[in-house]
User: Which sequence fits this backbone?
């Protein structure tokens, strides 16, 4: 059967690939992980200043109360929550909970829904909306 | 690639890192739930925040969290380099920089909680 050994083109057009929702949840797991890693110095700096002398705490407040920093922190909040929820999903899949196609799809919906809802609730608090 | 062609920046094809990723993830998840509960109980200004973080058990748990975080990030970021960066020299450089940064972050963060 010569047609079977025909060299097939390698094709990786990211705009032509349609990912299932679980695929998006998975790539967001990676993106959120990178974001958290890159922002670790900022997060440790904030922890450092928040736990130090009153002067340092004032420094912390000045940076923390800056709108751009707050928006960045809301982004990181989403990254953390998504990474957390997706991590729990991965651990469950590891022990063979929810590995059939329908449950895997539903759990990826749950990851998105829970992480986005918590981001909205906690992010609004962070931004001082309530 | 034959199995004689191993490169120094490969994954070593073992279970250990995979397992470490899970265990460190569980430690961080438990810490997150613990801290969420502590914060929901209410923290009174900077004094309250310092009191919480300098409590013996919290400090012990935070230390574990920091170590787990850096170990977890090491495996995760290394996996990303291995997926996208093929030349061994560049990959080795990125692996080294990642490891050095994470070791530094761990020292810094531990110092922050341990001086309390």
Assistant:
């Amino acid at each position: 059967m010569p047609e079977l050994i025909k060299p097939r083109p390698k094709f990786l057009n990211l705009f032509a690939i349609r990912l299932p929702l679980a695929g998006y949840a998975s790539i967001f797991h990676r993106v959120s992980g990178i974001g958290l890693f890159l922002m670790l110095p900022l997060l440790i700096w904030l922890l450092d200043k928040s736990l130090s002398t009153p002067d340092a705490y004032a420094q912390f407040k000045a940076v923390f109360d800056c709108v751009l920093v707050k928006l960045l922190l809301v982004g990181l909040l989403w990254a953390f929550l998504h990474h957390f929820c997706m991590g729990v999903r991965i651990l469950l899949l590891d022990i063979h909970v929810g590995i059939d196609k329908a449950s895997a799809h539903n759990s990826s919906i749950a990851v998105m829904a829970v992480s986005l809802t918590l981001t909205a609730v906690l992010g609004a608090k962070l931004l001082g909306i309530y | 690639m034959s199995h004689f062609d191993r490169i120094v920046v490969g994954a070593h094809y073992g279970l250990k890192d995979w397992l470490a990723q899970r265990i460190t993830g569980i430690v961080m998840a438990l810490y997150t739930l613990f801290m969420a509960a502590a914060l929901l109980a209410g923290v009174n200004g900077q004094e309250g925040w310092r009191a919480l973080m300098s409590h013996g058990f919290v400090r012990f748990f935070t230390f574990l969290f920091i170590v787990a975080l850096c170990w977890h990030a090491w495996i995760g970021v290394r996996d990303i380099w291995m997926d996208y960066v093929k030349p061994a020299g560049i990959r080795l450089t990125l692996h080294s920089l990642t490891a050095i940064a994470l070791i530094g972050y761990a020292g810094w963060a531990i110092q922050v909680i341990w001086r309390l």
